[in-house]
Sequence to fold (166 residues):
Amino acid sequence: MIEFNGELSNECKKSVRRKGIKVIVFACVIFILVFCIPTIIVAIVLKTWFIPIAIIIVIVIAGIGLALGFSFEIVKILRLNGLIKIDIEQGTITFSNKQDYINKHILQVKKVVDKGNWYDICFYFGYKSGTITCQKNLITKGTIEEFEKLFEGKIVRKFKTTKKAE
Fold:
């Protein structure tokens, strides 16, 4: 059994927020491409008074998409506040805190990104909460070596190393 328990550092929370904002912007761009551009094309082809209405519809739809995205991001940020607990046992990853409870199978893990002071466990698309963050210094049961052995072959190291002056 491996367990992470405690409150994430401000640096870790900031990274999670930044990643969440990138996801929202990406989702909005895709949303605009799929829904808004065809609306504008139809308006131009019809060459009618529909063009200004189409532009207003596009702006409203994009605004709604952004509002929904940011509301989901706010929920995710609230989930990071306070104590978190992550258990990895018998092929199951369980994340819990006051507001949320997520239970996933290890086979749903796409990759584990080593960010230096924490790991981001990334799941395949379509699963609730695409990423769970495990801060290394919050490990209370098991070891980092056991964690890395469990996810061997899926760990991607992405952190900056500082060069020592010679």
Q: What stands out?
A: The chain has a mean pLDDT of 79. Residues 111 and 154 are 5 Å apart (CA to CA).
